[in-house]
Amino acid sequence: MDAMKLQAAHLRVALQLGVCTVSDVIRWSDTEIARLDEPPFALIELALMENANTLDVLSKLYELSADVPTLSVLRKVLG
């Protein structure tokens, strides 16, 4: 599975649980954009969402990680 998609899924769950912030997500997206040769457009959009509400950020994270099973990610995030 694509590491970026898996990280996006982890961040989506962590943001929903209040374990991370929108700022954390934006920092991650900036790092990923710098790392990837051709970042997905949704990742670029996410990097520009610093002033967006949490639900919009969650929606964009879901767009990046839709094929990652939420239950398996939840288990990993919760330990």
Give your account of this protein's structure.
The protein has 79 residues and is an all-alpha fold. Helices cover 72% and strands 0% of the residues. The chain is built from 5 helices and no strands. It has helices at residues 3-17, 22-35, 41-47, 54-65, 70-78. Helix 1 crosses helix 5 (70-78). The longest helix is centred in the N-terminal third of the chain and has 15 residues, at 3-17. The model has no long low-confidence stretch (mean pLDDT 93).
Short description:
With about 80 residues, the chain is mostly helical. It has helices spanning about 5-15, 20-35, 40-45, 55-65, 70-79.
Number of strands: 0
Q: Structural class of the helix and strand makeup?
A: mainly alpha
Provide the gyration radius in Å: 12 Å
First CA to last CA: what distance? 20 Å
**Globular, elongated, flat, extended or rod-shaped: what is the shape?**
globular
Identify the quaternary structure here: single chain
Helix fraction, binned, reads over 70%
Percent strand equals under 5%
The whole-number mean of residue pLDDT values reads 93
List unreliable stretches of 5+ residues. none
Main β-sheet: number of strands, strand sense, barrel status?
Answer: none
The ordered H/E elements are: HHHHH
Descriptive labels:
79 residues; mainly alpha; 5 helices; 0% strand; globular
